[in-house]
Amino acid sequence: MSIPKEPRQLMINLMYLVLTALLALNVSAEVMNAFFSLDKGLKSSRTIVENNNDQLMASIDKQADAYRNESNEKYRKNAKEAQNVANEFTAYIETIRKEVFDLGKGPSKNDPTIPMDIRNKDVTTRYFINENKGKEIEDKINETRQKLLALADNDKSVETALPLMVEELPANSPSKNWPEFKFKQMPVAAVFPILGKMQSDAKNSATAILNFCAKKVGGEDIKFDRFTPAVSAEKSYVISGDRYVADVFLSAFSSSADNISINVGGSNLPLKDGIARYETSTSGVGERTFKVSINVKNPLTGQTENFSKDFKYEVGQRSVAVSLDKMNVFYIGVDNPISVSAAGVSSNDVRVSASGVTVSAQGGGKFNVRATTPGEAKLTVSGGGASQTFNYRVKRIPDPAPRLGKYKGGQLGNGEFKAQGGISAVLENFDFDAKCDMVGFEFTYYPKRQDPIVVSNSGARWGGQAADMVNKAKPGDAYFFDDIKCKCPGDIAARNIGSIAIKIH
Known about the structure:
alpha+beta; Immunoglobulin-like; single chain
């Protein structure tokens, strides 16, 4: 979400109104030095953006490596070039900063990072206006902006999101052109945050291009978001004395793909959460064979590919079986539903006992398992004169993901950020009815052109000083939420679930 053009222009106008008012006064050296504090704040914000861009580039590389094709290579190259273009512009502005520093008579005695002659307006006017350095910067901004837009296929939505631009002059501005508006009669001290903002705009513009390229990189039509150990055996039932042979592997499947069809014996099976269930009646005893055929539309080529295999099973005498309806483990603090069956035995006659967990019958061969301690559990199933024991792992609920509303991090509009009530813990791809409660978190507020402020917050919602810092959010500010802690069902102590970085635009 980008800042609308008119409010953005109003902010720019306001900044320069304040700047002009300060310059019209006989301000103190402390006020002049404050410009350098603003410049340092911009530099800190750029560091956050650069780190986010590097992470986004790594994600693009990973996706492009996984799904190699001409389109993905193009946008991987464009993403890297966007970073190079932004870095080139930033380096160019850095040379300007050094030249302005020298124009200000070099390092001061008290602070070598600040030039001695910070009030001088004549040298900056001569450098940027009379010597046309301001026009050169204007041309460089336009050139850089066009290069970045070309890397995003000149997409209109991206164009509106690029902060690096030559702003239109206010209607009542006495300046004849953009260089005069920016630099005429600006003291040396005021030039540095102006140049620093240009560098920040370039980095944020690169972010917009990276986000565009990330969406263009293929391989997202099928997301393999679930994993389970799998066994493909020659036979699913072995008579005493025979050898049991099976291929054992980790199976990955998609819980949401709609371009997959599964066929058994000529009949299509309905998919639920990416899994098709095959059921058939049996009679007598002996070996049975069925053919599985799976059609998948390749997201990269658009072609439908077929995979098929014959499977065998043996129909024998009475036995018992247990199947977990959701996961391959029991989770602490939630109901773990299981289905229990015994061939030839009514579900009403099946009994389940357990050690390490508690089991409650739900009817129709359905049971709920509750666990309290990590480790192993044993289920013993009996019925119809048969009995068998099954071993299972017991694990705590996986770590939830921290979220600011629906956001994992990145850039948010000012209003959108303030509309969020706090931090939540979300259990992603977890099929059980469970909710993790927030304990608290710490976040660092990076006000634009100011020193960072560290705030601690208890619970999920903003409170006290935290709410005050959130309400102060404005474009250019950044927030880093860290040490995010929550408690999930079955937890004795709070767990740390990561961090979130937000940049206000």
